[in-house]
Amino acid sequence: MSLLQGTAQINKRGQLEIGGVSVPELTARYGTPLYVMDETLIRENCRTWQQAVVNHGIVAYAAKAFCTQAMCRLADQEGLSLDVVSGGELATALAASFPSERIFFNGNNKSLEELELAVQSKVGHVIVDNFLELEMLEQIAARSRKTVDILLRICPGIEAHTHEYVQTGQLDSKFGFTLENGQALAAVETALAQRHLHLCGLQCHIGSQIFALDGYAAAAQTMISFFATIREKTGVILDALDLGGGLGIPYLPDDTPAQVKDLVQTVVDAVHNSCQANNFPVPKLIFEPGRSIVGPAGWAIYRVGARKEIPGIRTYVSVDGGMSDNPRPALYGSRYYALVANKANAPAEETVTIAGKCCESGDILIKDIALPHLEPGDILAMPSAGAYQYSMASNYNRLCRPAVVFVRDGQAYVVVKRETIADILRNDIIPSTWEKSKEKLSVAR
Ligand code: LLP
Question: Is domain 9-37+297-425 annotated with CATH 3.30.1330.10?
Answer without folding.
Answer: no
